[in-house]
Specification:
Number of strands: 11
Structural class: alpha/beta
CATH class: Alpha Beta
Distance between the termini: 39 Å
Number of helices: 9
Radius of gyration: 17 Å
CATH superfamily: Metallo-dependent phosphatases
Bound molecules: manganese (II) ion
Order of helices and strands: EEHEHEHHHEEHEEEEEHHH
Strand order of the largest sheet: 1-5-6-7-9-8
Helix content: 25-40%
Number of domains: 1
C-alpha cells in the first residue's frame, strides 16, 4: 500500500553531521511532521554511528539509499579515488558490519502520497541513478529522459547539496539540499517541508559547538570540513562545478 502523509520532512545528505541533524530534528518535532524521509548519504562523515542511531530510533522515518551509503557496503571495494579513500576508510571502521549491511539494503526510491500536494517520488541522484546529477543549471533536455518512467507529479532529489525548485515537463523537481554539508550562500542545515506546498527550509545550529564535536572525532581533514560548514562555497559556484561534472557524466 502506498505511503500516505500530510506533512513530510525530507532530510538529505546528512553525511554524519549529528549537530546539524539534531537541530533539524528539534525543528521538525516542533513543527509537527508525520513522516521523515531520509534521502541518502546518511552516515559518511564525522559521526556516522551516532547519526545512524539517531535516525533509526525514529518511528516516523523512512530511508532511501545514497551513493555514499552504497559504497560503504560490506564487500564493496575501496574507492579508487585517492581523495575519497581516507574518508571511506575512516567511516567503514567506525560502523559495524550490521550497520553497513543495513545501509546497503535500503531501497533506492520511495513514493509518498502527500495530502494536498499529490504523489511524490523521493530519490537520491535522479529517478534512475543514485549518482546522476541534477542542478538548477541542468538543461531541461538532459533532465527529460531521467523522468521518462516517472508517474509522480513531484520528484525530490539531492546528491549535489544545493537546493532548487524547478518545473520541468509538467513536473516539479526539487532538490532538498544538504542537512550536513550544504554548498549554499549561508551556513546552516538545509531540508524541505512538503505539505500543501513545498517549502525549502534552512535551520541554524551552533557551528562553534559543532566544530568542537567534529574536531574531537579524528575524522580526516576535519578542519577543512569545519571551514566548509562555517563558510560554504556559494550555491552558484557549487552548481556550476556539479554541472561540469554532469556534462562529463552524460553519455554523449
Ligand atoms: Mn550523494
Amino acid at each position: 500500500m502506498a505511503t500516505r502523509a500530510a506533512r513530510v520532512a525530507a532530510l538529505y545528505d546528512i553525511h554524519g553531521n549529528l549537530p546539524a541533524l539534531d537541530a533539524v530534528m528539534a525543528e521538525i518535532d516542533s513543527l509537527g511532521i508525520d513522516l521523515v524521509v531520509v534521502g541518502g548519504d546518511i552516515a559518511s562523515g564525522p559521526l556516522p554511528r551516532e547519526t545512524l542511531d539517531a535516525l533509526r530510533s525514529r518511528s516516523d522515518a523512512r530511508f532511501i539509499r545514497g551513493n555514499a551509503d552504497r559504497e560503504l557496503a560490506v564487500g564493496v571495494p575501496a574507492p579508487e579515488s585517492k581523495a575519497a579513500l581516507p574518508f571511506w576508510e575512516w567511516t567503514t571502521t567506525h560502523l559495524d558490519d550490521g550497520q553497513r549491511t543495513w545501509l546497503a539494503g535500503l531501497e533506492l526510491s520511495l513514493t509518498v502520497e502527500v495530502q494536498g500536494l499529490g504523489s511524490v517520488l523521493f530519490c537520491h541522484g535522479s529517478p534512475r541513478s543514485d549518482e546522476e546529477i541534477i542542478t538548477r543549471l541542468t538543461p531541461t533536455e538532459r533532465i527529460g529522459p531521467m523522468l521518462d518512467h516517472v508517474d509522480e507529479e513531484v520528484v525530490v532529489c539531492g546528491h549535489t547539496h544545493v537546493q532548487f525548485d524547478r518545473s520541468i515537463g509538467g513536473k516539479r523537481v526539487v532538490n532538498s539540499g544538504s542537512v550536513g554539508l550544504p554548498y549554499e550562500d549561508e551556513p546552516g542545515a538545509f531540508w524541505v517541508l512538503l505539505s500543501n506546498d513545498i517549502e525549502l527550509r534552512r535551520t541554524e545550529y551552533d557551528l562553534d559547538e559543532a566544530a568542537t564535536l567534529i574536531g574531537a572525532t579524528g575524522f580526516p581533514e576535519s578542519e577543512e570540513l569545519i571551514e566548509i560548514l562555517k563558510r560554504p562555497p556559494s550555491s552558484e559556484e557549487a552548481s556550476a562545478h556539479f554541472e561540469k561534472m554532469a556534462a562529463d557524466q552524460a553519455p554523449d
